Structures are given as structure tokens and as C-alpha cells.
Amino acid sequence: MTDFFETQNIFTPLAEQLRPKTTEEVVGQDHLLGPGKPLHIAFKSGKPHSMILWGPPGTGKTTLAKLMALKFDANFIALSAVLSGVKDIRDAIELAQIRCNNRTDTLFYL
């Protein structure tokens, strides 16, 4: 029998461990993910579009952005408006430019 703690990554925050891994696991956000809605269409068609995800903490913005990056085989760069400064933004832009020069994929910023 394996030990519970051997199978869990104790360094990954619980919120990250519990984050939905598919759109089917997302609770709520029916106005975006319901049939015929913008993100549902994007996921089904495989064609992402520009958007700004805005709302209070804990509403699923990061989860949706990560799911989109995964679905569309894109890089994901997380930036917090509260915690990130100008240097962080410049670093993210530089990384994005390097990645774009090396690959022709989609980039997601948060």
C-alpha cells in the first residue's frame, strides 16, 4: 500500500491541486461555457479569440485562461495586476517575443 503523502505533491498549493483540469469540471461560468456561448464555441472550434477576463478573486479567470492555453497548445504567462510591476511585464513581453520567434503559437497573458 502506498502512503497518501508519497502520491501527493505537498509543495503544490491545495487550490492548484483542486483546479479543474477540463471545462467539464468548471462549476459556473455558464454565460461563457454554456452551449452556444463564446468560450464553448472557441473550445469546440479550436479557434481562440481575444478577450479580457475580469472579475473578483476566485471566479475562475486563471482556470479558464489555463484551460484555454492547454486546449490551444499555447504558452501561459501569469501576471497579477496587484503583485506584478513594470519589470515583470517587460520580462513577460521579452519571453513572449522569444517564444514567438521560435514558434508560431498563441500566447495567453493574465
Break the fold down into its secondary structure elements and pairings.
Layout: H1 4-7, H2 14-18, H3 30-33, H4 38-45, H5 61-71, E1 75-77, H6 86-102, E2 107-109
Parallel strand pairs: 1-2
Task: Explain what you see.
This protein is mainly α and 110 residues long. It has one domain: Rossmann fold, CATH 3.40.50. It is 45% helix and 5% strand. It has 6 helices and 2 strands. The model has no long low-confidence stretch (mean pLDDT 84).
Features:
single chain; 110 residues; mainly alpha; Rossmann fold; two-stranded parallel sheet; 6 helices; 2 strands; globular
What is the overall number of helices?
Answer: 6
> In angstroms, what separates the terminal alpha carbons?
41 Å
- Give the helix level as a range of percent: 40-55%
CATH fold descriptor: Rossmann fold
What number is the mean pLDDT? Answer: 84
